[in-house]
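ok posting inputs for the pyridoxal-5'-phosphate job
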Amino acid sequence: MSGSILSRARADLLALAGYSSARMEASSGALWLNANESPWPSPVDAGQGLHRYPDPQPAGLRARFADWLGVPAENLLVGRGSDEAIDLLTRAFCRAGVDAVITSPPTFGMYQVSARIQGARVVEVPLDAANGFAWPLDGILSAIDETTKLVWVCTPNNPTGTTVPRDAILDLARGLEDRALVVVDEAYAEFGDAQSLAGEAAKPGNLAVLRTLSKAHALAGARVGCVVADASVIALLRRLMAPYPLPTPSVVAAEAALAPAALAITASRIALVRAERARMAGALAKIPGVREVLPSQANFLTVRLDDGPRTYETLLACGIVVRDVSRHPSLAGCLRITIGTPEENDRVRSALAERARAAA
Ligand SMILES: *Cc1c(COP(=O)(O)O)cnc(C)c1O
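and the output
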């Protein structure tokens, strides 16, 4: 039934009207004297009109996202990256001390951080490390109870680079029948072979998809991403959000990044990252001390080494900063290495090969 997932959101928030900003109350006029802004551009303004508050949900940017993802604009919320979306969804659905979210570690840390900040429980149903980090659909289904509000699915997953089959996610969403919202974090979707679930998330129901401009689109510093979900969920998140979430320079950059010219350049870079990922995976697997290179559909490789943490230090001494992800039991000895330019990747490969030679 359309919008019934909303009945699982916090009842106290459903009754909340939300802040009505000056920008929301009027959208056209010739003299803007309603928001206590400066009538003059700042002396440091480079023509962007930063003396005016930004549109809370710029129509132009939403239209670009809608075009890019092939979904209606009413099913889209644009915000400050996926991190803000994770926080908003957690706050919208989870009652402190009562409700729970399900995560499948090893995975992105923000799902559990946002849950803990909100006072929600985190139920961990780990990926099946013995089976290629397969997604534990059955385990998730048996972990679900009356208090489960959100199920986090990260595909391609950070930090394993592995994926979750599209059909399995759709089965879970259908099986939950609006008892919980299934949130698919597609931060690395551009680098993988799988089709996005954004189109499915735009249909009425309990599936949501997060996208970001931080990775493939090279705008991590602009902080822009979006949520695709049932229109009723989008409307609720909109009311919880900060009144002017998107800084004007970020809106300008994001709109340009989603225009055809930039998307074409981004596509060629994605192709290069994918080629480099394959090249590096092959090269690293041959280096003594490398036990395993996890098959990755993202813009990084997670590599298991005989001595991960010491290798981390060796790379650091060469000025190469990677991520030590070895703390998770199923990732013992693992480092996560972002795919850089071909030259940067060669430096990583040489440093690892050199270390192996010195140890031999
Ligand atoms: C990097 C990352 C994000 C962060 O996205 P922002 O849009 O920059 O907040 C979200 N999810 C995953 C899995 C990530 O790795």
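notes: The radius of gyration is 22 Å. The longest helix spans residues 260-285.
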